[in-house]
Amino acid sequence: MEWSGEILSVNHDTGTMRFCVRRNDTTVLEADTSLVGEHNLWNQVAAVAALVREGLDPQVIAQGFSSFQGIRRRQEVRGTPGEVAVVDDFAHHPTAVSVTLDALRLKFG
Hints:
The protein has helices at 38-53, 58-67, 94-108; strands spanning 3-11, 16-23, 26-33, 76-79, 86-88. The protein is of the alpha+beta class. A hairpin with a 6-residue loop joins strand 4 and strand 5 (86-88).
């Protein structure tokens, strides 16, 4: 069984991403999430695969992604003085910094 994911769209106004997860070319779920970026997409695909295997309903999983607010200090918007987003993120390894910056470019345009 092959699992895959695709970013369908990113809403720069809300900072959210719409994505889908497929299993063997069949869409399992589409959901909105505040976790933006390709690295977050692959984490979400893995979570869906594990949760579906455990018998959870994909609709319930999608609701969970839609309501999840993220965790502290991971792409956390601290404020927008002068309409410039100030983001706190604890990425400390060059690879982590790089994928975080890619995600932020996607999130904010």
